[in-house]
Amino acid sequence: MRLAGPLRIVALIVTVALTWIIVSIFLGGPGSGFSRIQQLFISPENSVTAEPRARKYKCGLPQPCPEEHLAFRMVSGAANVIGPKICLEDKMLMSSVKDNVGRGLNIALVNDVNDLLKFIRPLHEGTLVFVASYDDPATKMNEETRKLFSDLGSKNVKDLAFRDSWVFVGAKGVQNKSPFEQHVKNSRHTNKYEGWPEALEMEGCIPRRSTAS
């Protein structure tokens, strides 16, 4: 009989707690109470799922290239800190991770103007040339180098200057100027970084060279 008092107190506490829970369920605001309990019993089939991520294609392009086209994506270096990237057909050709980029013009690891001329002069007809600047692409350029890039289809190389950002895709023997080129001038009024303009990003689909049957 001595336990009757404590048991009544426990029963009273339980009753009050249950009453509070029931009141909060039926009188609670939106998103609380009963609606929350309902959510516990919603089947996975009826629940709203997050939209699937957009599919990425070769080199991260938002859509696939047509047949007989090569997918590419390239990014110039950011200031003198982040190196450039060149991707072709889902293969990363150059990047800081691969440790095969350097300051200047990134066509392989060429930076010295004499080596650059030796590298470009013997290119075969139809060879694609991918160029991404890093830090300073122009200081070591001479008129012959600029002409070679112009012959590859560049329209901006003649104006390339100290610490400009430049990305370019050209080809040996091209008849017209390349549509794949971007150039941002180094200007203290518009630079994104102190002493350097913003990095450039370019992607697209390049037609394969047609071969005679």
TrEMBL record:
Which key words tag this protein in UniProt?
Disulfide bond, Lectin, Membrane, Secreted, Signal, Transmembrane, Transmembrane helix
- What's an example GO cellular component term for this entry? extracellular region
Question: Which InterPro entries does the protein's record reference?
Answer: FAM3, ILEI/PANDER_dom, ILEI_FAM3C
Q: Which segments constitute the ILEI/PANDER domain?
A: 111-173
Q: Where in the cell is it found?
A: Secreted
What residue intervals traverse the membrane?
A: 7-29
For whether the record's keyword set contains Signal, the answer is yes
Q: Does the keyword Transmembrane apply?
A: yes
GO terms for MF: carbohydrate binding
CDD domains in alphabetical order: ILEI_FAM3C
Give the main localization category: secreted
Q: Pfam families, from UniProt?
A: ILEI
Q: Which family does it belong to?
A: Belongs to the FAM3 family.
Please state what the protein is called.
Answer: FAM3 metabolism regulating signaling molecule A
